[in-house]
């Protein structure tokens, strides 16, 4: 029998997405599947719609909006399966999107998490921002993807059709073994939303697990379903959470240096926002730094017993993606190959 898989969609006032995309999930071709919607106290009639239109879908209701991280933690405590798939509500899936990923993960007990190829729903020839062909970090902790660097989304021409070990798998379609999820303690609720998948993948890697990308399955993501890229709150979360996960997961000597340098790089971003007239975004960067400093003791208490040297992790780019993109004008991942990336390996 195939391993049991629970596809779990966390919903908050996403009725329009449930109407558009949930049927594609229900129609998935996988023999040992359950579909669950965890609801973060929606007020748009989502729960009523689910109960009337999708009686086979299990609905688990949270008593308030706990955000992405704690919302999922609470729901998944009530779900039993060999594998969890955390799937955004604004994702459309083809029928055979699960089997290739599970088959790849089953070949190695040290593989803890994975993602499929993630493409843009509105133009399915292109990779999508939130995941593309697998996530990476540069030497200062900036995230980017194969197929997407900053706001440049590449056309999928088969250039990333190799199954590889990566640094982080996207939370838009995150496959994770339940035993690994429980071992690492799930998502960090203090992150609320954004970069929580990078944090959980990093914690898994510090425990010796692998994160992989499977090109033989693909999904189609709308993106920006809850917080649009132009929302200053999203800017705040991204800058704050990036600093949080650096403090939590870096070796102490690395953390001092990288966080110090990141403050200065973030200050340049703040100036850029000011020069562009995006004053609320500039204020969001400043607010993020103050929030990081205010919580530095709390975050220190979350450091695990084991941090591996950052540059030894698979999927770390040993240069600055900011410099490469804005100064060297490198906009596609394949052109970064002349610079070292830690042990990027092809899975056979």
Can you lay out the helices and strands and say which pair or pack?
Elements lengths: L4 E7 L3 H12 L6 E8 L5 H8 L4 E5 L4 H10 L6 E5 L3 E2 L6 H8 L4 E10 L2 E5 L7 E4 L4 E3 L2 E2 L2 E2 L10 E3 L6 E5 H7 L11 H11 L3 E12 L10 H18 L2 H24 L3 H16 L1 H5 L15 E2 L3 H6 L22
Parallel strand pairs: 1-2, 1-4, 2-3, 6-14, 8-15
Antiparallel strand pairs: 4-13, 5-14, 6-7, 6-13, 8-9, 10-11, 12-14
Helix pairs in contact: 6-7, 7-8, 7-9, 8-9
Can you describe this structure?
The protein is α/β, with parallel strands linked by helices. It folds into two domains: 5-221, Spore Coat Polysaccharide Biosynthesis Protein SpsA, Chain A (Alpha-Beta Complex); 232-310, no CATH class. The protein is 36% helix and 22% strand. The protein is built from eleven helices and 15 strands. The strands form three sheets. Strands 1, 2, 3, 4, 5, 6, 7, 12, 13 and 14 form a ten-stranded mixed β-sheet that branches. The model has no long low-confidence stretch (mean pLDDT 95).
What is the highest CATH level, the class of the largest domain?
Alpha Beta
Structural class label: alpha/beta
Q: Which CATH architecture of the largest domain is right?
A: Alpha-Beta Complex
* CATH topology (level 3) name of the largest domain: Spore Coat Polysaccharide Biosynthesis Protein SpsA, Chain A
Query: Cα-atom Rg, whole angstroms?
Result: 19 Å
Overall strand count: 15
| CATH homologous superfamily annotation of the largest domain | Spore Coat Polysaccharide Biosynthesis Protein SpsA, Chain A
Task: State which percent range the strand residues make up.
Answer: 15-25%
Shape category: globular
Report the end-to-end length measured between terminal Cα atoms: 23 Å
Spans of 5+ residues with little confidence (pLDDT < 50)? Answer: none
Work out the helix count. 11
**Order of SSEs:** EHEHEHEEHEEEEEEEEHHEHHHHEH
- Our count of domains comes out at 2
The portion of residues assigned to helices is: 25-40%
Mean pLDDT: 95
Biggest β-sheet strands, sense, barrel:
10 strands, mixed
């Amino acid at each position: 029998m195939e391993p049991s898989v629970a596809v779990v969609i966390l919903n908050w006032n996403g009725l329009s997405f449930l109407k558009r995309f949930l049927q594609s999930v229900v129609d998935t071709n996988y023999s040992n599947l359950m579909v669950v919607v965890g609801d973060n106290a929606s007020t748009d009639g989502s729960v009523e719609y689910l109960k009337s239109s999708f009686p086979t879908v299990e609905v688990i209701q949270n008593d308030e909006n706990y955000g992405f991280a704690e919302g999922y933690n609470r729901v998944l405590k009530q779900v039993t399966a060999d594998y969890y798939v955390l799937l955004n509500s604004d994702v459309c899936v083809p029928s055979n999107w699960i089997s290739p990923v599970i088959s790849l993960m089953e070949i190695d007990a040290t593989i803890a998490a994975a993602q499929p190829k993630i493409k843009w729903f509105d133009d399915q020839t292109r990779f999508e921002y939130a995941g593309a062909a697998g996530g990476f970090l540069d030497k200062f902790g900036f995230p980017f993807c194969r197929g997407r660097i900053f706001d440049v989304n590449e056309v999928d021409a088969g250039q990333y059709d190799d199954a590889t070990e990566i640094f982080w798998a996207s939370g838009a379609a995150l496959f994770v073994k339940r035993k690994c999820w429980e071992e690492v303690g799930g998502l960090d609720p203090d992150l609320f939303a954004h970069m929580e998948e990078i944090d959980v993948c990093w914690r898994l890697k510090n425990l010796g697990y692998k994160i992989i990308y499977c090109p033989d399955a693909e999904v189609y993501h709308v993106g920006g379903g809850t917080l649009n890229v132009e929302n200053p709150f999203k800017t705040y979360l991204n800058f704050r959470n990036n600093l949080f996960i650096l403090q939590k997961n870096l070796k102490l000597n690395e953390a001092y240096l990288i966080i110090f340098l990141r403050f200065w790089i973030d200050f340049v971003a703040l100036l850029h926002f000011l020069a562009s007239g995006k004053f609320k975004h500039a204020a969001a960067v400043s607010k993020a730094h103050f929030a990081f400093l205010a919580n530095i003791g709390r975050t220190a208490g979350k450091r695990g017993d084991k941090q591996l040297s950052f540059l030894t992790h698979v999927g770390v780019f040993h240069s600055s993606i900011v410099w490469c993109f804005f100064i060297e004008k490198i906009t596609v991942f394949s052109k970064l190959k002349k610079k070292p990336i830690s042990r990027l390996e092809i899975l056979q």
